[in-house]
Amino acid sequence: MTSKEIILGSIRRNRPAPGELPCLNESWTKFVDPRKKFIEVLESVGGKAIVARDQNDLAKQIESLPQIADAQTVASLVSGFGSRNIDVAAMDSPHGLSHVDVAILPGEFGVAENAAVWVTDRQVPLRVLYFLCQHLTLVIPAASIVDHMHAAYDRLIAHDRFGHDTATSRHFGVFIAGPSKTADIEQSLVIGAHGPRSLTVCLVEQC
Amino acid sequence: MRIGLFIPCYIDQFYPHVGLATLNLLESFGLQVEFPEEQTCCGQPMANAGVHDDARPLAKRFLNVFAGYKCIVSPSGSCVAMVRHHFEQVLGPSPELEYVAHKTFELCEFLTDVLKIDRLTGSFPHRVGLHQSCHGLRELRAASDSELVGPAFNKPRQLLASLTGIELTELSRPDECCGFGGLFAVSEEAVSCTMGLDRIADHERAGTEILTATDMSCLMHLDGLIRRQHKAIRVMHIAEIFAEARGINSADGLLA
Amino acid sequence: MTTNTTDHPTAAARFIANSDRMHWHDKAIWAARTRRDNASRSVPEWETLRELASRIKQHTMSRLDEYLEQFEANATRLGAQVHWARDAAEHNAIVAGILQQRGAKHVVKSKSMLTEECGLNPHLEQLGIEITDTDLGEWIVQLRHEHPSHIVTPAIHIMKEEVGQLFHEQLGTAAGATDPQYLVEAARKHLREKFLAAEVGITGVNFAVAETGGFVVCTNEGNADLGVSLPKVHIACMGIEKLIPRLTDLGVFLRLLARSATGQPITTYSSHFHGPRPGGELHIVLVDNRRSELLGSSDFQRTLKCIRCGACFNTCPVYRRSGGHSYGVTVGGPIGSIINAAREPKLHKSLPFASSLCGSCSDVCPVKIDLHQQLFVSRRHLASLGLVPKGKRFGITLAAAVFSRPRLYRLVGRLTRFGLRVLPRSLVYNRWNIWGRQRDLPPAPKYSFHELNRQRQRKDDAYK
Question: Which value does ipTM take for this structure?
Answer without folding.
Answer: 0.97
